[in-house]
Known about the structure:
Layout: E1 15-21, E2 25-31, E3 41-46, E4 49-55, E5 58-59, E6 70-76, H1 79-84, E7 87-92, E8 103-104, E9 116-120, E10 125-130, E11 141-146, E12 149-155, E13 170-174, E14 185-191, E15 202-204, H2 222-238, E16 241-243, H3 248-254, E17 267-270, H4 276-283, E18 288-291, E19 296-298, H5 302-312, E20 317-326, E21 329-333, H6 340-345, E22 352-355, H7 356-361, H8 370-381, E23 386-396, H9 404-412, H10 415-420, E24 423-426, E25 434-437, E26 446-452, H11 456-468, E27 475-481, H12 487-498, E28 502-505, H13 512-522, E29 527-531, E30 535-537, H14 542-550, E31 555-563, E32 569-571, E33 574-576, E34 582-584, E35 604-605, E36 613-617, H15 618-623, H16 637-647, E37 651-662, H17 664-668, H18 682-691, E38 715-717
Amino acid sequence: MTPEKFKTTDQSVIKGRIDGVVGQGISGWALRPSDLEQRLWIELMVDGVSLGVGRAEHFHPDAGPYGDGCYGFWIPIPPVVLTMAQAVEVFVANTGETFDRPWELEKTASGTSELSQVMTDGGLRLSGWAVDPDNYRKSLRISAILNNRILVSVQADQRRFQPDNTDGHGFTLTLPLDLADGNPHEITIQDEKNRNLNGSPVRIQTFPELTSDWLHNVQITGTNKALLKIILQNYENILPKSLGFGHYREWKENFPPNAPALKLKGVAVCPAEAPASEIGRLAASNEGVLLMCEGTNLLPQALVRMAAAHREKQAALVYGDSEIEKEETIRPLFKPAWDPFLFCGYDYLGPVLIDSRIIRDLDIRPGESHVSLRTRLILAAAEHRVAHLPFPVSLCKTEIPVDPVERREVLRDSAFLRTTSAQITAHPQFTYLNRLSFPLKRRPRVSIIIPTRDRADLLGDCLGSLGQKTAYEAMEILIVDNGSTEEKTFELFRRAEQQGARILPYPHAFNYAAMNNRAAVEARGEVLCFLNNDTRVRSREWLLEMLSLLLLPKVGCVGAKLIWPNELVQHGGVVVGTHQLAAHVGNAWTTDAPGYMYRNQLTQQWSAVTAACLLTWKSIFLDNGGFDPVHYPVAFNDVDYCLRIRELGHQILWTPWAELDHLESASRGKDLTPIQKARSDMEYHHFRTRWGHYDDPFYNPNLTLSAVVEPFDGLALPPRKRKTRL
């Protein structure tokens, strides 16, 4: 049902309408006819709870007859609310004036505004979608226009996950770098039929450097200058800008790393074709030895920079980022900090500088190959301090410069795999990658916790898949009922109880964190599995895989690969820092795609994983206060929990070998909030206050944190602090 427009002859009241769910939020328009210069703030209330506000300031086609037509709003809703909410209301913030009737979320049809959208953070990257209403199968050509001149054109043919019916109609584009001149520019975004996209025109105003760098050119001193710098740095963190990889050469010229102050001495270079004995000989007379890879060259100043990190950080191993040269094109390979799980899956390090003491302490086997000794030395050095230089130090011909077959044999005999009894095999799809499998040394009881409110269709599928596709018997199911009212839900509860599930009533205002905390206390299992009601198990081994990782030393949480019905990845880990918040990894990747640096296919560490499917120890969860129901009642409670236990030394792992469908969010979408439309929300404020300056070790500071594009889908403009990472 799409509500009718509010009809009135009184020009002092509000005109407008709600379009419905667009992406992961509520879209519509609102204006006061008696004052068309005013841009109203609209408040969103879901089931009687205020969830946020948004300003009605963006172009909306239905508001075209009024003023400049810029009266559209978009207010995001957390994904878990979209699966459980019922009644939705909007009204003018502070005054309480209404302009549309309450409506039911799940019965709302998509409005025409879903046919197109362009989003911007005020920088040079734009993204969105465009569907031809006359021919859904056709992909439209999208152009950015300034002063009647086409700046850039792209095809809207990218895979997407939201809104409905836009898969294959997405686009991202990068405006010319010369527009980053500090001046405001109004850019029109049109399709090939000269139709403006919703959100057009967009207004951009950005500099290539950090805004805080302006202070070097202004006459401000003392306390005022220090305060202004803090304000500008906060702006930079909340509104990070991005540049496409196609501009890498220009970006690299504009942002070279700082010149090293240390003079080179005591470091030798060992070619990849040299025998292992040569490495030992060089270590005898040098502080460190740099091991090259086949088909790889060092970039200027690379050796000096690596030697400086080795000496200043007292690192046993130093590596840096790389550039890959292919068909006269150079693209960067921006790497995470050291992760032994990712390294076992794929040698991503490139040339490495090894402390000579590590080499001298390791027995070099007669006739040992360079690859074998390199791998053993890396694992030995990693038991000490590893330093990562977050800028390119080498130029490679391939992303896989080390023989994967020989390396696999060396890893199989390594202490890291022997102590965990792990098995290492070739990846079934990408045979040059490795899959790690860990035995289940014991079988602790697992409590699977599922919050719900009605939606028997979703919950029934979830429970059915658990029963049919879970090859693990030592588990219980706890369903947290947050005020269900439908008889079909109660019938499902009765059937679930007959099969051993427990129903825990939670007759209070919606609070995702509090509901899960309540169930965690009641849980009888040693392990907790938080699971959304809109998930569905794909393979019988999912819980065995996750549990085998949780049983490893130091592991505190394990996350799964969640997949939308169109086979795009809904969750492949979490990057902390996007929009100074957090973002899921993989939303532009199909489940069988390699992803950036093959990270869609390999077990690895992340800073956080989503609680839509999260395994953790009950003792760790309760000892650390569980999810925070005060500061994060709906969103970010899972990320906050992961970051808190990481501070205590626990590792957060993600595995691609535990796959689940994530159903409802595919039809409702993902939080791709245009920055200007983002709500001023309590959870945002608390997360930014607590974690806003977190430097994610598993995400490179040269990569974008813009909310307009996906993680790994562009360059940071400018790069963040590129200090040596340990």
